[in-house]
Each structure stands twice: as C-alpha cells, then as structure tokens.
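Moderator note: this is an archived Q&A kept for reference. The question asked for a predicted structure of one protein chain; the sequence and the answer are reproduced below.
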Amino acid sequence: MAAPRYKTLVDALASDIRSGRLTAGVRLPTHRGLAAREGIAVVTATRVYAELEAMGLVSREQGRGTFVRDLAVPSGHGIDQQVVAKDTVDLNFNYPSLPGQADLLRQALRDVATSGDLDTLLRYQPHAGRPQDRASIARHLRRRGITTDADRILVVNGAQHGLAVTVMATLNAGDVVAVDALTYPGFKVLAHAYHLDLAPVPATADGPDLDALEKLCATRPVRAVYTMPTLHNPLGWVMPATDRNRLIRIARQHGSLIIEDASYAYLVEDPPPPLAATAPDITVYVSGLSKSVATGLRVGFVVAPPSAVPSVERAIRATTWNTPALTAAIACRWLEDGTVDHLEAQKRDDAGARQALAGRELAGLPFVSHPSSYFTWLPLPDDARADRLTATLARRHISVATAEPFSTSVHTPQAIRLALGSTSLDSLRSTLRTVRQVVVEDACA
C-alpha cells in the first residue's frame, strides 16, 4: 500500500534536512506556500510541519514562520559535548586550563604514592566521602562564606552528579521547579530524565524577576527553585543581597526548597553571602572543582539540610557508591595546601583578561557578561537567526552555542553564547573578530 501523500512529503523534507540540503536556519515556505507548491490542502501542510517539529527537525515561531533546526544539538538538551574538529575553535564549552597544571598533578600523584596507606584508596569508601575529606571541604567552604558541619557535606563526582543526586533525593516526577527562563542545560537534562515540570521565571538585569516568581508560587505548587545567584550561566549576573533575602522569604512562605548551583561562584570576588549561608535549612548548595581546577578532576560537593543528608547519601550509593578515593584525596590535598586557592585566583585573572578582550572586540554589539566570567551572551537583532549564524560560523571553523540549550520558555530568544575559556588569548582575539564580522554581515544581509 502506498504511503499517504503527506507522509511521503514528510520523509522527503526530513531527508533534505538531515543530509544538509536544507541547512540550519532556513525559513521553510508558509503553510499556504507549501500547500500551493505541493498541490495539497493547507490542513495537510500544517500536519507535515507538525510531524517535522515532533521529530525535532524544525521549529515554529509565532509570527515569523517555520525554520530548520540546528541538528548539532539534540532538541531540548544541549549538554552533550560534540566532538570538535582539530581545526575548529571551541567557543561552545568552557574547560579553562592554566600552564603548569599537569606538573601539579604529577607532583600530587608522587605525594600520594609515598604517603599513607595506599590500600585504603583501593577499597569502597563511605558513600558521603571520607570524614577527613568532608572536613577539608568544610574548611574550604568557610572561605566561600558557608560555615557548616562536615556531616552536612557529601562528596560527589562533580557538580552535575551533585545536581543529579539532589534531584533524586528531594524531588518526585511531576514536581514543579521554578527556573530561570535561560538556565544551565545540565539541569534541563535532569528535569527531562526525572519528569520535572520546569516553570520559567523571566530575568531582570541582575537576577530573576522576583515579582514573577512570587506570582508563580502563588498560583502553582512550586516544590523547588533552581538558581545560580553567583555568576549565572549564561547571563553572568550576580544577584544582589536584597534579592537573595527576598528569594529566601518567598521560598519559606511557599515551602519551596532552594537548589543553589555555585559552579562558577569562585570567579567572583567578595560576592554577597550564598543562599546556603543565610537559609541552610531549606537550601541545597552544589559546587565542585571541575571549573576552578580541571574538568577531568570529577570531585564536587553537596551541602544539604540535615533532614536531606540521608536521602542524598542513598542517591550517591545508588548512582556511584562513592567518589573515587584517589581523585578525592588529590583534590583535598590541594584544598589543604592552597593549590585550589592559587588556581582560582589565577583563573579569576585569566577570565578577567578574556572578558576585557571580548569587550574590546565586540564593542558596539549588545553583549551581556560579568567582568570576570568565562562566557558572554550575545543577543541578535530581531530578524536574525541564531542557527543560521552558527552554521555560518561552523563553516569558518568556529563552534558556538545558540540559546536553545539554555531556554526553558516556549519562545527561545535569538542569541548565542560565547565560551571564552577554551582557546589561547591570541586565538580568542582573532576568533571574536570573525564572530563580530559574521554577526554584522548577517544583520546587513
């Protein structure tokens, strides 16, 4: 039996998109235009586009039309790191590294090999981490403004694992979680996997719109608020102390848990106190050493309210049993001997230099950033298409992220995020000049 006409058309368009014959950002004909071109009813054309959208191949935008999606990023995800060709400059992901870090690792491995009982590092460890490691992290957190007992700290395999076990331990399928309208893609992935209902909160210049959050909490049962108050990714804001206190009041009034993601907090000197310092009974604080030390050092930490510690510990057991003792031992040595503090200070300087460079090279464009962050957010003109722009940059061997991986709203803004920490300063300078040129040329096209 022959396939229905609309199915044949869906298959043909899908093949053209997947093969690249229809490239990312191309505007497809209107429903009436497709109907006239293919000799089908308008309602059938609407069905064709609906199926292509359900397949993740196109996106429909109110008042603008139907566009071919960028297939480099799975629909709704964006955390998946794509393999970047050797001749491509990666402004998509941040993995900042400093000269001499490999030598630090060599020395640390020698120190571990010549001290202590190595046998203990080959055995299962306590699910929440060894007591001495948790104590080292507690001393480190005091320098970040959090004074807590070591028994409220749990050692995890990086901040992403910390977020995962927090979700497993504290939330259930169907729970409403308030998030920024633009937020960390890794939390979106977790929400999808655990069937959480993400409720987007619009942004102001320096944080979430707390009036909107208050209205949301008054109309829906918001179980948790996921937030990045110190150096938001991707917008780079640092929430003022007054707004932090109001957010805590809203959470208390409505019985909401706060999940505080502090992965990039180390880049900000003298920020307001963390939410976990002011409201430790309702806040889960998640951070790690991947950004401040090295992405390959998968050591993170969760500071949980006492009532949540047992359930987070069970989630660690269920997912990984324990953080590998060897990497935890190296990380905690570096916490104790000042290596982490030294690397964080160097990376703050490095990020500041890169951000200043971006400010010079992107001058005149409406970019949004923090002076010491490793990323810059670049909104595009109203008639621009981020996926078309990224495709153009890809042809020039530059990889950037669109807003889609970060967006939790129905309407995704046209913008790109530039990660500044994964290439040399000289390469970054010339690459940003190319980005600027492409953005300007696209706006004039």
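Archived answer notes: The CA atoms of residues 136 and 332 lie 6 Å apart.
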